[in-house]
Structure formats: C-alpha cells, structure tokens
Design goal:
274 residues, alpha/beta, 8-stranded mixed β-sheet, two-stranded antiparallel ribbon
C-alpha cells in the first residue's frame, strides 16, 4: 500500500491528539493488561504517525517496554521515535525502534514475539483484503485498534443538510483510490469478523470525539475536511454548502453548536494465549 500523505498531515495528527486521547476506551487497556506477557513488553504500533498511541498507551502499561513503530513515512517515524516517553508510569524504561515499510504486507513472522499489536485511526483507511492481511499477521496475540470511524456524525442542534453531507462523506470514505476500494466506516466490523475467524474474542467500545466551542481549531479543521470530502463526492452540494458552512461556523463561535463524531475501539484477545 502506497499512500500519498497530504501536506500538513503531521500537523493534523498533532491537532487531533488531545481529542484522540480523551476518546479512547480506557477499559480496553484494563482488559488487555492482564493478558500481556514478556519482559520487556514488546509493542508493535502499526501506522504510528507522530506516535500519539505510544504517548497515550505506554504510561498505561506495566514495566519495561520496547516499542516497534511501523509507518511508510520516514519523517513520521523519526518524529514518533523522538517523542515517545522514555519511561512508563512506574519509571520502567521504554525503548523504541522504527521499521519503515508497507504495514499491509506484514506477516506473522514480522510480529513474532509481540506482546501487543496496536494502531490508531488506521482500519478505515484500508481495503477488505488489507484488513484481512493485517488481522492474519496479528492472529494469536492481543491487538488493540483504536479510533476507527463508523459513519455517525451528530450535530446539536441539527440542520436539514447534516444527513446529506454525512452520507456523501461516508461515500467518499468508501471510494476507490488507485484501485483500492477503501472500507471507511465498514472497517471495524470487517476487522472484528476477521479476528473472530482467527479465533479471537473481540470487544468493541465507542470512542467518540465531542467537539464544540472549547475545541475551535480542531472543529474548524475537521469541519473543513468533512465538507471538502462530501463536495468532492457530490459536487451538487457545493452551492448549498456555502450558507450551511457559514451558519455552522457562526454557531460554534457563539457557543451554540456541538458535534459528536463517532468512532469504535476494537480489542482482540486470543482465546488461548500464544
């Protein structure tokens, strides 16, 4: 899988990091903690980006840890490695290495010895075949995949155009790019079914963003991207969206609008420890 990252992608990851941290399902960490084996714990982070998952999760795991960061972008890998915590909450050391490459081509051998495989905001960017390969590589070891979009956006108060724009955005998430039919909002269900076929127990939890006047920069960036994707998918929306966007932005600035962007976190635990 080759993905051309948009300009400013690293800045977008940094902007969204606090919302991601607030949204992730902490009870799934509690569930997986007792199933982790190995000293140090070996954690593979797939599609690590700037390393937000490591910054969030490493302090929540016990004892010495060795993180192996996977990403196709060398710049993101370097940034993630530099910013990972040096110690867990109990003071135990956290070490890191990076592995550039196509994470959808990973095999079970690449993840041999892993105590945990994790990723954040990844699954919805993959195809069905890619999800199946990733799941097959993870099979037999705990896996925690956070923040997959599921196609539910709810504004308060509602507007007549909300549903149509959301529908167009979901279509865009499922578009075909370079011959790759992206799963978008269907990804977490496809991944859950694949993990079950590989003999895992799967737990799903909601991990929604809740945005409003207290997150003006993130709302502005998310809202602009949401509208742009919807209009790219359905150009007939370009005209009506102008007044809609002005109204929604004014409502947020006045403290009269909030939005919930739903995600799901997935934990897969092998029925029998590897």
């Amino acid at each position: 899988m080759t993905v051309d990252l948009p300009a400013g992608f690293a800045d977008w990851l940094t902007l969204r990091e606090p919302a991601d941290a607030a949204a992730r399902a902490t009870d799934l960490v509690d569930r997986v903690r007792s199933r982790l084996t190995g000293t140090p714990l070996v954690v593979h982070d797939l599609g690590c980006g700037t390393g937000s998952m490591g910054r969030w999760l490493a302090p929540r795991l016990p004892g010495p840890q060795h993180w192996i960061l996977h990403d196709a972008d060398a710049g993101l890998l370097a940034r993630a490695a530099a910013d990972l915590p040096a110690a867990a909450a109990d003071g135990a050391p956290v070490t890191v290495e990076t592995r550039p490459g196509d994470l959808t081509r990973l095999t079970a051998a690449d993840l041999a010895g892993a105590s945990l495989v994790t990723a954040s905001a990844l699954l919805d960017m993959l195809t069905a075949d890619e999800v199946e390969r990733v799941v097959a590589a993870c099979a037999g070891r705990p896996a925690l995949f956070a923040l997959s979009v599921v196609g539910r956006v709810r504004f308060d108060p509602v507007d007549a155009l909300d549903a149509e724009i959301a529908e167009a955005f979901d279509e865009h998430q499922r578009r075909t790019v370079g011959g790759r039919a992206l799963l978008g909002p269907d990804a977490v269900d496809v991944a859950a079914a694949a993990f079950v076929r590989h003999g895992a127990d799967v737990v799903l939890r909601p991990s929604p963003w809740r945005l409003g006047p207290k997150e003006p920069d993130l709302f502005a960036e998310w809202f602009a991207g949401w509208l742009d994707a919807a209009c790219e998918q359905r150009p007939e929306l370009i005209g009506p969206v102008g007044a809609y966007a002005r109204s929604r932005r004014a409502a947020v600035a006045a403290g009269r609008l909030t939005v919930l962007i739903d995600h799901r976190d997935l934990l897969a635990l092998p029925t029998v420890n590897p």
